[in-house]
Design goal:
The complex is a heterodimer of chains A (345) and B (394). The longest helix of chain A is centred in the last third of the chain and has 27 residues, at 285-311. Helix content of chain A is 49%, strand content 16%. With 345 residues, chain A is α/β, with parallel strands linked by helices. Chain A has 2 domains: 16-248 and 322-340, P-loop containing nucleotide triphosphate hydrolases (Rossmann fold, 3-Layer(aba) Sandwich), CATH 3.40.50; 254-300, no CATH class. Chain A has helices at residues 27-38, 55-60, 94-106, 109-117, 120-127, 129-145, 168-175, 177-182, 189-201, 216-233, 254-262, 267-276, 285-311, 329-341; strands at residues 16-21, 45-49, 70-76, 83-91, 160-164, 206-212, 238-247, 317-321. Chain A has an 8-stranded mixed β-sheet, with helices on both faces. Chain B has 394 residues and is α/β, with parallel strands linked by helices. Chain B has 3 domains: 8-168 and 233-288 and 371-390, 3-Layer(aba) Sandwich (Rossmann fold); 173-229, no CATH class; 296-350, no CATH class. An 8-stranded mixed β-sheet of chain B has the order 3-4-2-5-1-6-7-8, with helices on both faces. Classes of the chains: A alpha/beta (345), B alpha/beta (394). Bound molecules: adenosine-5'-triphosphate, adenosine-5'-diphosphate and magnesium ion (2 copies).
């Protein structure tokens, strides 16, 4: 699907994958699957959650994540089979990120605790959400830049960082950190920090993937989101791929599909088919099945229309199937394998 | 176990019902349900107003919600034979906030607040503000008393509970210690300096260091200004809150038959109970059903048989449908059987989830709305949803 001449994946060189999408389309699931897919043998990958919902813990069926990097899974092996590298996870919350920030830049951990007790973070996230967003994205970029030691040329602590980000409606402003705080802080330490974070987010090392289902609203939000990123940042923040999630298989194609939609199929055709399969057409069974088939055909057409809509964004498209019976670890590996097969990771 | 049926028509026909709140997690169909119920109420004679937050684009267009002027507009195409009417509006969060400021502060002070960078950041941020403003707008509409039924859609919160918490959060925040610290100099002048103890000095020192002097000053100005109008803020929030507890209010929880949405719905049931807010029932939206009496297993087996060319009852008789493809009936039958099996499995899973909810909350009435083959994007579509919703009791 995507021409991949010399590269391993479509996103080689990217160190921070930001995953956004309309609420409920599968951001957390896809971010986790992507982390598993990126963690080939010997590679350490960090999966970051930013909205305090413990979605990652629920997904990997482990106790709530503290504000600390914890190993949660082993990545998908090189050819799908063997053992991959380590996947770590971290749930960043603004308060912890503030303490880190004060500690790292000012050596002020104790004062930080006092500030927390006074409700500084409540304060910041209420009157200036941009500030707490900055602290959280700051933590993610720090992890992406972190080196094993301070020696020059020391390797990165994580090969890649995957962020389960806020939904599409907020992503532009969320990532456009320096602009968001620039009205608040024209100069000073916050400004400097914002500029550092922005440099990472605006570098080719960061891409923003959009997760969507093949429905009208999520698709519209995806296109709007890509447009907004472009508008807000003049292309400085790079949209990555579009991940079509929970696509339903099409049972019909070609002439049968058009016939089913246009209503030119005859119930007797179906009745004959049923009879051939040894099922008798009692209680109007053929008519009921015909109605279901027509509705399915309508949905296939709609899905195709949404796919065509998405293609106008001119981003690589990756399609993930609906996993029957809900997502468990096996389901995540299945999605990870699909992402890798398609070159997304 | 089967849940009691939710009777929407009884709720909307009861003149004592003055507010219906549709809540639930994102994407489940809150906006759709709110609009459908508003339309149905109007067409059954109520003077209804729908307050929506984020309608899908085509739905907004079909309801005439294209201009964002923050006041309800009459919806064309509503059937008015029974003497009802429908108005609708789309929430403009920032404008609603600006209006509160203008209503509660003298013009000079208001201008000062509106220009403050903190205010601008706060009033256009989605974290909490949207929820708060939706409740504020509801209070305003109810206060205006121009409609006898207001149907509200709640914001696409990450959690279904956010809109209940947002007003209190702002209140708690303005009462917080830090705020008192920041506003103290303005309030107490020089006296403040004397009581400023060493601990506080360290904190303000650190704040200055981290935030910079200008930022701290802006924050102080903003908070002081906000503080002067806080009495008004709080009064309103409390009024709206009591409104939500009043007997004329009916909460509907909207959920899709999916684990996450139903988990949120469960939390919400408990929370409404704690807050003593009147829950009318659960709208289970986008369920899959089938009238066909053929099991998934049998359906799949038959599809497989046909697909393998193994036809127990001999070759198909040609002469039906497409003359160029005499065996088209095989390919469409395979497709129909597979489609049916998928639908049956989906429906079964959904029913299991719904039963799980009902066994935890056996007294809560439920109305099911089948998944429509297409998005609901016009009045005709809304009317269908309204009909399906009300067919439950019959
Ligand atoms: N490919 C898939 N197949 C089947 N189920 C899926 C798939 N992807 C996601 N899901 C399910 O859909 C639901 C929503 O997914 P998820 O929590 O990842 O979405 P999200 O975008 O992170 O949601 P939120 O906006 O609430 O954070 C979950 O129940 C998840 O298990
Ligand atoms: N019963 C239904 N059948 C088909 N589509 C539906 C149904 N209910 C809602 N939808 C569609 O689902 C999408 C999300 O619905 P919406 O009401 O905007 O959700 P919410 O307000 O809860 O976020 C819309 O495109 C809407 O048309
Ligand atoms: Mg999530
Ligand atoms: Mg909505």
């Amino acid at each position: 699907m995507n021409p991949r001449p010399t590269r391993d994946t479509d996103w080689d060189g990217v160190r921070l994958h930001v995953v956004t999408g309309k609420g409920g389309t599968g951001k957390t699931t896809v971010a986790a699957a992507m982390a598993l897919a990126l963690a080939t043998a010997g590679r350490k990958v960090l999966l970051i959650e930013v909205e305090g919902r413990q979605g990652i813990a629920r997904l990997f069926d482990c106790p709530p994540l503290p504000y600390a990097e914890r190993k949660v899974a082993i990545g998908l092996g090189a050819d799908g089979a063997g053992q991959g590298g380590d996947v770590y996870a971290l749930a960043v919350e603004p308060e912890g990120a503030l303490l880190d920030y004060l500690d790292m830049f000012y050596n002020l951990r104790r004062t930080g605790k006092a500030l927390t007790r006074l409700g500084v973070m409540d304060f910041a996230s209420t009157i200036a959400p941009g500030l707490s967003d900055l602290l959280v994205t700051g933590k993610a970029t720090e992890a992406a830049r972190r080196r094993v030691s301070s020696r020059r040329g020391s390797p990165h602590a994580y090969h890649t960082v995957v962020m389960d980000a806020p939904p599409t409606g907020r992503i532009g402003r969320y990532l456009n950190v320096s602009a968001e705080v620039s009205d608040l802080a024209k100069v000073g330490p916050i400004r400097t920090h914002a500029d550092t974070v922005a440099r990472v987010i605006r570098s080719p090392q960061t891409v923003v993937h959009f997760v969507t289902t093949l429905e009208e609203m999520p698709v519209q939000e995806t296109l709007d989101g890509i447009g907004e990123l472009r508008e807000l940042t003049g292309g400085a923040i790079r949209p990555g791929g579009i991940i079509i999630n929970m696509a339903r298989p099409a049972m019909l194609a070609g002439a049968d599909l058009s016939a089913a939609v246009s209503g030119s199929l005859d119930v007797t055709e179906l009745a004959v088919g049923l009879k051939a399969a040894g099922i008798s057409d009692n209680h109007g069974l053929a008519a009921d099945l015909m109605t279901e088939l027509r509705e399915h055909a309508q949905q296939v057409i709609l899905q195709n229309r949404e796919r065509a809509e998405l293609a106008t964004a001119e981003r690589p498209l990756y399609e993930l199937p609906m996993v029957a019976d809900g997502i468990d670890l096996a389901g995540l590996y299945q999605l990870a394998a699909a992402l890798r097969r398609k070159g997304a990771a | 176990m089967s849940a009691p049926r939710l009777d929407i028509d009884r709720i909307i026909d009861d003149r004592r019902t003055r507010i219906i709140v549709c809540c639930g997690s994102g994407g489940v169909g809150k906006t759709t349900a709110a609009a459908a119920i508003g339309l149905r109420a109007a067409e059954r004679g109520r003077q209804a107003c729908v307050l929506t937050v984020d309608p899908a684009r085509r739905l907004a267009q079909s309801m005439g919600l294209t201009s964002l002027d923050n006041i309800p507009r009459r919806v064309d195409g509503t059937r008015t034979e029974s003497g009802g009417s429908l108005h609708a509006m789309m929430l403009d969060m920032k404008r609603t906030f600006d209006e509160i400021v203008e209503a509660h502060a003298d013009p000079d002070r208001a201008a000062q607040i509106l220009a403050n960078p903190f205010y601008q950041s706060l009033s256009s941020s989605f974290a909490g503000t949207q929820e708060y403003m939706a409740m504020e707008k509801l209070g305003q509409l109810r206060h205006a008393d121009e409609w006898d039924l207001i149907v509200v859609d709640t914001p696409p919160s990450r959690s279904a509970l956010d809109f209940l918490d947002a007003p209190q959060r702002l209140g708690r925040f303005l009462d917080g210690r830090l705020i008192r610290l920041l506003t103290a100099p303005a309030k107490a002048g020089m006296a403040y300096m004397k009581v400023l103890n060493a601990g506080l000095a360290v904190v303000t020192g650190a704040l200055t260091k981290v935030l910079g002097t200008q930022l701290l000053k802006d924050a102080q100005t903003f908070v002081t200004a906000l503080d002067t109008m806080f009495g008004g803020f709080r009064e309103r929030a409390e009024w709206t809150y009591r409104l939500l507890q009043a007997p004329g209010t009916a909460f509907l929880i909207v959920a899709a038959p999916e684990p996450d949405a139903l988990r949120e719905a469960s939390y919400f049931v408990e929370r409404l109970d704690e807050e003593r807010m009147p829950l009318a029932g659960l709208v289970l939206n986008r369920v899959h059903t089938s009238p066909a009496r053929l099991s998934a297993a049998r359906s799949l087996a038959a599809a497989e048989t046909l697909d393998m060319g193994d036809r127990p009852n001999g070759p198909v008789l040609p002469g039906y449908g497409d003359p160029d493809r005499p065996d088209r009936s095989i390919s469409i039958t395979v497709a129909a059987l597979r489609t049916h099996a998928e639908r049956m499995n989906l429906g079964k899973r959904e029913r299991r989830l719904a039963e799980h909810f009902t066994s935890a909350h056996p007294a809560i009435p439920v109305a099911e709305v089948v998944a429509q083959p297409e998005d609901v994007h016009d009045l005709a579509g809304l009317r269908v949803i309204g009909e399906v919703l009300s067919q439950q009791a019959g």
